[in-house]
Amino acid sequence: MSSTPDNDVPDPAVRTYLRTHRARFLDDLTHWLRIPSVSADPDRAGDLRRSANWLVAALRETGFPVAEVWSTPGAPAVYAEWPSGEPDALTVLVYGHHDVQPADRADGWDTDPFEPVARDGRLYARGAADDKGQVFLHTLGLRAHLTATGRTAPAVNVKLLIEGEEESGSPHFAELIAARAERLACDTVIVSDTGMWSPDTPTVCTGMRGLVDGQLDLYGPDQDIHSGSFGGAVPNPATEAARLVAALHDEDRRVAVPGFYDGVAEPTDQERALLAELPFDEAGWLRTAASHATLGERGHTTLERIWTRPTFEVNGIHGGYGGPGGKTVVPATAQLKFSFRLVAGQDPARVQRLVGDWVAERLPAGIRHELVFWGAGTRPCLTPLDHPGLRSLVRAMGRAFGRPVRFTREGGSGPAADLQDVLGVPVLFLGISVPSDGWHSVNEKVELDLLLKGVETAAYLWGELAADRRDGRW
Amino acid sequence: MSSTPDNDVPDPAVRTYLRTHRARFLDDLTHWLRIPSVSADPDRAGDLRRSANWLVAALRETGFPVAEVWSTPGAPAVYAEWPSGEPDALTVLVYGHHDVQPADRADGWDTDPFEPVARDGRLYARGAADDKGQVFLHTLGLRAHLTATGRTAPAVNVKLLIEGEEESGSPHFAELIAARAERLACDTVIVSDTGMWSPDTPTVCTGMRGLVDGQLDLYGPDQDIHSGSFGGAVPNPATEAARLVAALHDEDRRVAVPGFYDGVAEPTDQERALLAELPFDEAGWLRTAASHATLGERGHTTLERIWTRPTFEVNGIHGGYGGPGGKTVVPATAQLKFSFRLVAGQDPARVQRLVGDWVAERLPAGIRHELVFWGAGTRPCLTPLDHPGLRSLVRAMGRAFGRPVRFTREGGSGPAADLQDVLGVPVLFLGISVPSDGWHSVNEKVELDLLLKGVETAAYLWGELAADRRDGRW
């Protein structure tokens, strides 16, 4: 894919605009980051409302003719739209979220997580990268787009949907977008809630894995019993939980549930070639993973394993005695917390059914089980590599960064797939966060020069998309 | 084996003596049970000393010319001896313990565990069955033996060793008996710390399983990491713990560690025949086990599995997230608490070595492990079925109960094996507790008529042993 500048937004004008408006932009973002919009904390419901109202005001000031709070049974979302006015213009829906992960100075933060501090070219605060910074870049990006092109409305119809429960698993999101599908109708979704490979390697994410997760409780004896008196003659739920876990992988570390891989394609030669373009360094990757070796499905590289292959993972296993020393019991119960990551071709509902049947068939008499999935699961999503919007995005990013843009994927899962499925359009990912940004961890930050490159990408993107439309490529 | 009365203790005289001394005996036992000699509780060290001193006084009153407290680095033991005075008399060492399990009224006891209550022919108190009642029966048994035979000293040399740390794993016991082996020298040990099949089926236990137990800690990532970003590409210690557990059994539920069964013999036809004499009722046994099905090594009955076969059991498994809902992490660590029960032919030190090697070979790169065994393990012990002392014991018990005596074993493990190994003599088990007595549980009790049958058995036993010696059978 080329980075040919085929658009109507002159680069120097954009850069001049960003230089002169950068300080005010960061000042505004800092105000927003001070609102502790922690969706997991019921005591923060008022802060979620404050955060949504603050964003609505900021979007109106940006120029959005429509900006409103959308209530949900949980935390509110923010919706805004700015029609292009051009006949036949593309419609783009930007997705992000204004809620943040919990954060407490006492967890090990160097400074107060809700008192943003700019230091060494970084802005430290909870939500700086995940996701307020990446949402807010679209305000300055849009203003730069208008100023540099002399337009009074964007070159495409721009819609924004900024949810308030992403860090709590988006419990009301699918319902919300289904109920508002007509207003949200668009040609593509731009998700600004992901990252790129590294500060030196701008990348576009082209997919996220899906997720099926849940809990399995096994019940054996009515209470813990003596392992001397009874051990070896009755089923032990901890042993059975372990046997299930072990049986879930075959000798090639593939998931052994029959039918699990139905519909899953091996990475294509093109996909493998794109992955090979990334400057992958195993030792560095292991440091990021805080791990001491790689291990996974035979026949696949590390990047293929985390991005293109489905997995089964134990998130927690608990049963029996866990105190100091020993206690010779056969435990009464054991509990497994687990997650499956899914890739294109897999359906969460079908995977839940396959796993449920498989578990039920494998447990011996005397072990009762309760299997619960956390909701309906999350579908995987994948941007087709030949999608015209992906080419537009790559060109915009290439102009902003002045480097070749590579392709990544996201091993995690998110509500992007809901947008893809409910609205029936492809999803593009515009994210400028880097692995060191500390999502969900202490000392979360955003790199200010990368944030401004994101603003610049957004400023070019609307023109690139409009040019593609105008020239008949979309 | 016959129940022929081949001895010098006339039954009616014993029974008359017991009738007239029963009230005083129970009154004394009640006093002892009031002392909360909980060895696991450091605050009860004074009560352990009181309990030991009380027993010494009671043994002196019984007539033991020697009765003393033996200090250990932990709780004290009690030692006593009463020489027969007969030339060439056998020497018997009675083993029991005066410490008890923790107990608190709030755990669900109907009455105070340290305020004994006699009700419906039972005496309820912590330690009533395990083990003060079964220790104390030897005092009245010995007096009845003397009175009924007109002797001033027992027909055999009687020694008693009553330890104070059995409920805490006997941490100083092996050391104690090794240091005092000369004074403890004997022809056989009588362990009075086990039970019999049921109130209607008097039995003699002929063996206990050995024990190797410990803890395995597995370390993967340096902290919990995101299962979406990294899952499927790095080793997961919870998964590896589960795979070890699963691999420890083969498809026949036999322990799969190579060499584990070396030296283990299948039950002989005689042993199987003796087990078949027991009125085993699977539904009733499952109720006692609080379990809902049997499961174990293929090709063996439930009783063979718990008494004659070695096992591996998970006592606890813990790793990763265990709170409400889900958390999609690859856990940093996982911990396994485990126990192996051993049978005749197996050596704890060798099993520890085999298990250590097996674990080390199976873990993938990136998983560090720490394996700790709780001490040197406990050896199995087994009374030879043709041992003359066993015949004496069976006759004594048959006279007391007026029924055929069957044979059981004990699935658990105890310090009996230390006595067997250090003193180099066979161990016999004289126990009258029944499965409903609530050892280590709430509302522990002893059945008073069975306790008195135990007294009566002890009263006959010394004469039976002396007769066997006199007649050249031992």
Short précis:
The structure is a homodimer of 474-residue chains. With 474 residues, chain A is an alpha+beta fold.
Provide the domain count of chain A.
2
Question: Helix tally of chain A?
Answer: 13
Mean pLDDT of chain A: 95
**Quick one: biggest sheet of chain A?**
6 strands, mixed
The total beta strand count of chain A reads: 18
The name of the CATH topology of the largest domain in chain A is: Aminopeptidase
Structural class of chain A: alpha+beta
What proportion of the residues of chain A is helical, as a percent range? 25-40%
The portion of residues forming beta strands of chain A comes to 15-25%
Please supply descriptive tags for the structure shown above.
homodimer; 474 residues; alpha+beta; Aminopeptidase; Alpha-Beta Plaits; four-stranded antiparallel beta sheet; 13 helices; globular; disordered N terminus
Describe the fold and architecture.
2 copies of one chain form a homodimer. Chain A is of the alpha+beta class. The first copy, chain A, folds into 2 domains: 11-208 and 381-470, Aminopeptidase; 210-264 and 310-373, Alpha-Beta Plaits, CATH 3.30.70.360. Helices cover 34% and strands 20% of the residues of chain A. Chain A has 13 helices and 18 strands. Chain A has helices at 11-33, 45-62, 132-149, 173-179, 181-184, 237-247, 269-276, 282-288, 302-307, 348-362, 388-401, 416-423, 448-470; strands at residues 66-70, 77-82, 91-97, 117-119, 122-124, 157-163, 188-191, 203-208, 210-219, 225-226, 311-320, 329-330, 333-342, 368-373, 381-382, 406-410, 427-429, 445-447. In chain A, the strands form 5 sheets. A 6-stranded mixed beta sheet of chain A has the order 1-2-6-3-7-17, with helices on both faces. Chain A has a 4-stranded antiparallel beta sheet with strand order 11-13-9-14, with helices on one face. Chain A is globular and about 85 Å long. Chain A starts with 10 loop residues before the first helix and ends with a helix. In chain A, 56% of the residues are buried. The model of chain A is unreliable at 1-6 (pLDDT under 50). The interface between A and B is large, with 81 and 81 residues. Strand 11 of chain A pairs antiparallel with strand 11 (311-320) of chain B.
